[in-house]
Input
Amino acid sequence: MRLWGDRLWAQSHTGHKRKTNQDRFLVREVKHGQRVLLAVADGMGGESGGDLAAQMVIDFLDTVPIGPGEFELHLKQILTETDEKIKQRARENPDLEGMGSTATVVVVSQNTAYWSHVGDSRLYHFHANSLKQVTTDHTFVQDLVADGTLSQEEADRHPMRNVLDQCVGCGGLNVDSGRFRVVAGDRLLLCSDGLTKHVSDDSIKAALIEGNARQAVEELLDQALYAGGKDNVTVVALDIPQSGTRAWFQTAQMDDSSNGNQ
Output
């Protein structure tokens, strides 16, 4: 965990049941605060494989140039290249076979948020007291919701609700991406499924209404742990400031980027 200020906060916790934390997050300042990149990755495929896959996603996002232009296309290319790198590592070491990671990433530049997504980590957009789940979970059960076989309520209780049909490193990658407008007072939230397994969208919305980004992250993390903490939990929140201000970073206290787990 690192200190950025009350407008931008991120925390990750192992939870009560797991021995290790295979979640990773990234907060990256770009162009002296003119842009910010946020990402969450949730590894899978055994203890060593999940750790490595999630870290490879974060490391690649942390090092590649993020310049002006088509951010959506650029982010998709990054995840596609990372997919190939993870598959190559697994081919070189049979012990890593089956490793992969979710990846949910957003770049905020001026008044636009550009995002790309694979897996069941999530990006939410809180605007005008309304919460929208921007990303769609890439799970077997969500596919059944999309074709009308299951209702969302049935999907939430389904025993296979956490079985992914897309991940970075699993092959056959199809990255979702998009963009949306943000205005002062909006809030973005990224999280791993360790949060949404335990905390409803209504509870997420309530936490985002009250207090600042730091308070929202701490409240949601506490709720997930209190509800059982069966999985690693990672939450990242960003407040959109007034136009022309870049109050996300406390420059004297941090480097250009930070990634972490606990």
In short: Residues 251-257 have pLDDT under 50 and may be disordered.
